Amino acid sequence: MGGSAEKTTDDWKPRIVAFLCNWCSYAGADLAGVSRLQYPPHIKVIRVPCSGRVNPLFILRALQSGADGVLVSGCHPGDCHYATGNYYARRRFALLKKLLDLVGLEPGRVQFSWVSAAEGEKFAGVVRKVTDAVKALGPARQLVQAGS
Amino acid sequence: MSLGEELRAVAKKLLEDGKVDVVIGYGRGSLPLRSTPLFVRDAKEADKLIFDATCGANLARYLRERKDRAAVVVKGCDSRALVESLKEKQLDRERIVAVGVPCEGIVDVEAVRRSLGAAELLKADLDGSNIKVRTRRGEETVSLNEFLCERCRSCDAREPVLADERVGEAVPSPSAEKGALREFEAKGPEERWAYFAEQAEKCILCYACRNACPLCYCPECFVECTQPNWMGREHNLSNAQVYHLMRAIHLAGRCVGCGDCARACPMGVDVGFLGEKLREVVKELYGAEPGADIEAPQPLSAYKEDDWQEFVM
Predict the structure, then answer these.
(1) Bond into B228 cis (ω within 30)
(2) How many other β-carbons are positioned within 10 Å of the β-carbon of residue B219?
(3) Strand B138-143 relative to strand A69-74: parallel, antiparallel, unpaired?
């Protein structure tokens, strides 16, 4: 792997970008907040209208820009606010995942979930899982551009 | 009648009968083991048409945005690109005559050159299942089969799927030789990343692979978008990797594995191995075979309620 080997200092905080669909996952995250649920604060949320809006390039760009992990979360299949957006997203992300696995991108860096507006607890749990996985992997070394 | 003679006769007739305004085929290239796309508008010129293991270029590309009626020589892979282009409404079926030819693989000229340690091939001739080559070091004979293009090795669809005219004998399609891909996947993730990085490091982001591809025709490609500037233009490893990953994704379910991308690459990058994996994945997950069936929807334009989702947390 390219790039300088960084030692994980105790100061290192993972930077995780989370694309959340407005109608389900973002609302679920909001519910987690309102319910005062505790979960790691390292995610940076980007609200999108639908998980189907997420271009695989967003995910790769996030990794290039220095994200240590990327989460994409949408409505459960069948419950998409736009009826079919997440169905198309599911196929797109399946292919992206297979491709990233093929080239050896560390698994755990890019994750997907279905979280509904009522699943505040689930959202907190997803963030905990993703953060733990990314912490265990350390700072991202793959795809990162110098100066990120 | 030999294959070449049959092909020339068909082309001549199409032009003489006024069925088409141009026959798009292959002619002898000016460099050893190279062919060149040939645009024959006069029946007398049809004698220049050839077809052999040097004829790699996917001629389906030249049909786009034509106003005239064209006949095009297509191998198995080329005809599948034709089908996908028709699916995407890029071509007018009425103005196309597909001339199907049998193909047993295309020679990888650069591989021949590299294996002989030569800076260039001075002369090379196909001779049955051999290639007679002359370099500054002298004359050598190599086996054609040893130097087929990577994509041709894993081709299991040699017969044109769309052919208004057909020349030559049908060739059996072997079951796809997936050995190389399986071998690659058996390696650990660090090794696979190292290979991907090694290939991408050679990439100079010239986009010849994209330009050669019959299905890369977006008026504004994602690499050219400046608002926002998605793809960095700096020539670094990260950008090269993202470029290849994204192009593969954009071609998922559409790439027919013709291998023109790899042949176009001036740096010897293993372009297309990502596409090969995705071809396997879309078949396995969604039953999709690019170019096989003109009625079948493209996998990323369709969905099933029970699509595979084990990758979701």
Answers:
(1) yes
(2) 5
(3) unpaired
Answer for the pair A81, B294: CB distance below 8 angstroms, yes or no.
no
Helix (H) / strand (E) element for B152: namely: helix B150-153
Amino acid at A131: T
- Mutant choice from A95, A100, A130 vs B, greatest count of B C-beta within 10 A: A95
The residue written with tokens 């309102």 in the block is A34
Partner residue facing A61 (CB), from B230, B301, B302: B230
Bridge-based pairing of strands B22-28 and B35-40 is antiparallel
- The 8-class DSSP code of residue B258 comes to -
Which residues does chain B have within 8 Å of residue A144's beta carbon, measured at their own beta carbons? Answer: 238
Q: Tell me if chain B has a CB within 8 Å of the CB of A92.
A: yes
pTM of the predicted model, to two decimals? 0.93
Q: Which of B191, B241, B286 sits opposite A143 (nearest CB)?
A: B241
Q: Where are the beta strands (DSSP E) in chain B?
A: 22-28, 35-40, 70-74, 96-100, 123-127, 130-135, 138-143, 165-166
Q: What is the pLDDT of residues B161-172, one digit of tens each?
A: 999 999 998 888
pLDDT in tens, A86-104: 999 999 999 999 999 999 9
Cross-chain Cβ contact A102/B277 below 8 Å: yes
Rounded to the nearest 10°, the torsion over CA B147, B151, B154, B158 is: -100
> Which positions in chain A touch B246 (Cβ < 8 Å)?
56-57, 60
Question: Going edge to edge, which strands form the sheet with B138-143?
Answer: B123-127, B130-135, B138-143
Express each pLDDT in B83-95 by its tens digit.
999 999 999 999 9
Residues of chain A in contact with residue B235, where contact means CB-CB under 8 angstroms, are none
Chain A CB within 8 Å of residue B238 CB = yes
Q: Cβ of B238 and A105 within 8 Å?
A: no
Distance CA B228, CA B198 (A): 29
Nearest partner of B50 among B38, B42, B32, judged by Cα: B38
Query: CB of A3 within 8 Å of any CB in chain B?
Result: no
What pLDDT does A81 receive?
A: 95
Q: Residues 6 or more apart from B283 whose CB is under 8 A from it?
A: B289
Share of chain A above pLDDT 90, in %: 90
Q: What is the DSSP string of A35-99?
A: TT----S-EEEEEES-GGG--HHHHHHHHHTT-SEEEEEEPPTT--TTSSHHHHHHHHHHHHHHH
B275 three-state secondary structure: helix
Question: CB-CB: which of A78, A105, A142 is closest to B305?
Answer: A78
- What are A111's strand-pairing partners? A71
Residue B67 CA from chain centroid, whole number: 24
CB contact set of B64 (below 8 Å; sequence gap of 6+): B85, B90, B91, B214, B217
